[in-house]
Write a structure and sequence with these properties.
With about 425 residues, the chain is mainly β. It contains five helices and 28 strands. The protein has four domains: about 5-60, no CATH class; about 70-155, Thrombin, subunit H; about 160-255, Phage tail protein beta-alpha-beta fold; about 255-413, no CATH class.
Length: about 425
Amino acid sequence: MNDMTIKFNGQDYLAIYNKQTGYYEIEITAPQIGGIYDANITFTDILNQNYTDTKKVQIWAKEKIKIETNKVFMWIFNYNDFTVKDIVEISDYEINIDEETNANSIIKVLKKTKAKANDIIVVKKNNEAVYWGIIDNISNENGKQLYEYTTKYITNIFNQKIKLESESYIKEKGVEDFIEKAITDNFINNADIFINKTYLQLNVKTHTKKQTSVTNVENEIYNLHTWLTNCTQNYDIVYSFSIINKKLVITIENKTYNKELIDTTAQAISNYVEVFETDVVSKVVVLYDKVNDVENKGQYTLYLLNDRTTTTDMNNKNRAEGRIETVHTEKYEDAQQKALDTMKSNAYNHNITFNMLNKYIRVGTPIAIKTKESLIFDTYISAIKITQKKFYEYTCGNIRIKFIDKLLKERKN
């Protein structure tokens, strides 16, 4: 007897021969995501000979209907055990997602809640989370109905000084692994079980090894939140938050979002401002104390070239002009990365801010922005301001433009 089996989307199906139509037929379960899928067909005839073929199958997915509403809600979670304290409608708000400046967000509600300082909140617009934060303080003027919440971005959960341990993880396993261990040891599995936040769950998706050390250390103590922010700025480490099985899941990864194209000449954009500064660090002197953990003071010097690469050759004819920075690191092994991190700050001297109608782009998303002069810059979203207006206010950072070419052109003129 002839048999036909079809493997589709990881599942095997046995086709049934229909005598009326003369075809083999199956009923398959369509994937949730649309696209083109392979159907791998195996046919066995009555002589037990096998024949194979592959056919392309187009799956069309129905577009989700998005219901727009002007209502914005705030979920309030207990900081100790992550139970829900309240869900309230927000009457007014100014949300700032900007870890570089650790900006405050202001949220106003017309209801008294059981919320307290350090409680966790999530703000949802059109049932999508647009902001995670922790409550800094709540104020109520003269017993009025309006309550004003001052909040910080949620990574401030880790705004705490801790002892430096397992620093070798950064070089041997990855920046993300070091962060995971620091959070686990100090906030989840601490010997002082009274302070543990057992509702936290970590998900490390990448492992970025760096020849560097924690930079904000004094007497073997550092602020974890400051280090988290430094890792975002210097190594593109991002932190995303979700709720799964009543756990607050923190995903830590070196993430590359799909690039967005922003055309300031065509899209619904307003309040476009571009600031360009030509203050460039072209030489970094790094003073160090030890080599291979042996006391041996010295200095490491790195120079910037006109093509934005670097060299240790002081006599290189392509050296760029600019100012000199002198910094310190304890170990010689970290000196090169320290110098590179210092020079990377050059990229923040060219900033663009703009408002965009009804389009939400996450912090960290790379964009190619076309300016009014039809110049195209590669950059990323470094900060967002969200208000009741339909426009989102964006700030860009790290413009990847040839600053040196700009300087040379200015000098020629």
